[in-house]
Write a structure and sequence with these properties.
25% of the residues lie in helices and 26% in strands. By secondary structure, it is an alpha+beta fold. The chain has 2 domains: 3-212, 3-methyladenine DNA Glycosylase, Chain A (Roll), CATH 3.10.300; 219-501, L-arginine/glycine Amidinotransferase, Chain A. Helix 13 links the parallel strand 25 (447-452) and strand 26. Helix 4 (176-183) crosses helix 5 (193-204). The longest helix is centred in the N-terminal third of the chain and has 18 residues, at 19-36. The two termini are 47 Å apart. 39% of the residues are buried.
């Protein structure tokens, strides 16, 4: 079945499909529209950027939906001046042009809120708002022929999106009862008003608006590294390693500076995540492994570190750990440790939606179980994005094969191809207290610095990394003492893109 036939089938919902099935369809359709379709008018193509779903049947009484009868995948000029892509819709209409809202009725469409016009040289222009998008479908009244926009196949690659509630459902100060009563003017038969008031309130907050996310920043985009000065402290740090790392950075031509006002030599965990060239997100860093009275003074306040750096951040009050955010294509991968740290159950869908809304990007949650050798639950101790849809995974499977298999299955379900490092069958006595750390290497642009430990796994790990990053220059640095404390190069550093270091 080709994409268009599959989409047409997905957009045929019917009178009896239940609410869970409808919402599953919304997810499948949004993914297809973002990744595999565009609107073409003349020579120009328009990619879907923001869409809203509306559908009514007896099991999903989203009364906000405007009635219509239509085949699937037809354009519909709605009463508010916007354009919908219709679901298969069927509702009885009398000569008075009023409808029968009975159990046989089913109807709806996808409102187009934003489109991105992509021309032949790759630049883009955003059509923002339903009225702007609808202008594509307006005839200018001249005698020339009108090229009606067409839904066409378009391979947009792996695309991520987030969900938010629909907007402009109620006017300012408008009551739910008044809004529903005005909607019911379209019908001569309908269910009880009181129940419809309740339904409206429920559906008003549903996360039926899907927004395609812009490209995330990745290690390959960075050009600058920051390190905590505690790393060179003679008593609390590792001064010899600091000097060695400084030399390697200089030899590779990587710009680096020291952070100020830090409380330990780990830098990744408390510093903001860079989401775009000019977009940083600061979060509440309060990990459970540092909240006892002996460790709490080591928690660094990133707002103090950022003073004078010329970097502006937006903030969230969610408890997040910088080591637990790995950018992978359009996604951010986190372990499920983020749930209990925010006092949520690990299957809390509302919290995941909030997390994605705060980050502004979709999140992939991978499972984590506390082990004696891992109390941190950082995703950067498990995986590294290699470009496109490829992920390199550490050797977690050597010790915990079931957990590693679960992580792999989840990543593959999002379309990633996963390569796992494995040492168990390649060396006689694997050093598991160290070889986990190879995946925690530092990449800045096309340069990679990886940890080594003078063990047989060093050469095998380098081969894995070189094959995953064939265009990168790789240097090694010995860091056994640091790795035994639970972190490696990625944990020690904060690499970002700053325009002044281009």
């Amino acid at each position: 079945m080709d994409n268009t036939c599959q989409l047409r089938q997905l957009m045929t919902l019917g009178a009896n499909i239940n609410a869970i099935g409808i919402e599953e369809r919304f997810e499948q359709i949004a993914k297809m529209l973002f990744e595999s379709f565009a609107i073409q008018k003349g020579e120009k193509k328009y990619l879907f950027k923001e869409i809203e779903f509306y559908f009514y049947n007896k099991n999903h009484r989203d009364i906000i939906t405007y009635p219509r009868s239509s085949k699937p995948l037809c354009w519909y000029d709605n009463r508010f001046g916007g354009i919908d892509l219709n679901f298969k819709s069927n509702i009885e209409c009398r000569e008075s042009k009023k409808y029968n809202l009975d159990d046989n009725a089913y109807f709806g469409g996808i409102l187009i809120r934003q489109l991105v016009c992509v021309n032949e040289v790759g630049s883009s222009k955003v059509l923002s708002g339903p009225l702007k998008c609808a202008e594509l479908f307006k005839h200018n009244g001249t005698t020339g022929s009108f090229n009606e926009p067409q839904l066409v196949k378009y391979d947009n690659g792996m695309v991520g999106y987030i969900r938010r509630s629909r907007i402009n459902i109620l006017q300012p100060k408008q009551k739910v009862e008044d809004k529903v009563n005005s909607i019911l003017n379209n019908y001569y038969v309908y269910p009880g008003k009181e129940k419809l008031y309740d339904d409206f309130t429920i559906f008003k907050g549903k996360l039926y608006r899907y927004i395609r996310c812009d490209k995330l920043m990745h290690d390959e985009d960075t050009n600058m590294v920051f390190i905590s000065p505690w790393l060179k402290d003679k008593n609390e740090g590792h001064p010899e390693f600091y000097q060695h790392l400084k030399g390697v950075l200089n030899e590779m031509g990587i710009e680096f500076k020291e952070l100020k006002s830090t409380n330990d030599y780990w830098a990744r965990d408390y510093m903001p995540i860079q989401l775009g060239k000019d977009e940083f997100l600061n979060y509440h860093y309060y990990p459970n492994y540092l909240v006892n009275i002996d460790d709490i003074e080591t928690i660094t306040d990133a707002t103090k570190v950022l003073r004078g750096m010329g970097i502006s951040c937006r903030s969230t009050n969610l408890i997040i750990d910088g080591g637990n955010m790995v950018s992978c294509g359009p996604y951010i991968v986190m372990t499920d440790k983020v749930f209990p740290e925010n006092r949520k159950k690990k299957d809390d869908a509302d919290f995941k939606a909030l997390l994605e809304s705060e980050l502004g990007h979709p999140v992939i949650i991978i499972p984590w179980t506390s082990h004696e050798d891992d109390v941190y639950g950082h995703s950067d101790g498990f995986i590294k994005w290699c470009g496109d849809n490829r992920i390199l995974m550490g050797n977690h499977g050597d010790c915990y094969p079931e957990e590693a298999a679960s992580i792999r299955r989840i990543l593959e379900s999002y379309g990633f191809e996963v390569t796992e490092m494995r040492f168990k069958d390649k060396v006689d006595s694997p050093c598991y207290n160290l070889n986990w750390a190879y995946i925690n290497f530092l990449q800045v642009g096309k340069n990679i610095i990886m940890p080594i430990f003078d063990i047989p796994e060093d050469a095998i790990a380098q081969q894995y990394i070189q094959e995953a990053f064939p265009d990168c220059c790789i240097r090694q640095i010995e860091m056994e003492d640091i790795a035994k404390k639970g972190g490696a190069l990625h944990c020690l550093s904060w690499n970002v893109y700053l325009p002044k270091y281009e």
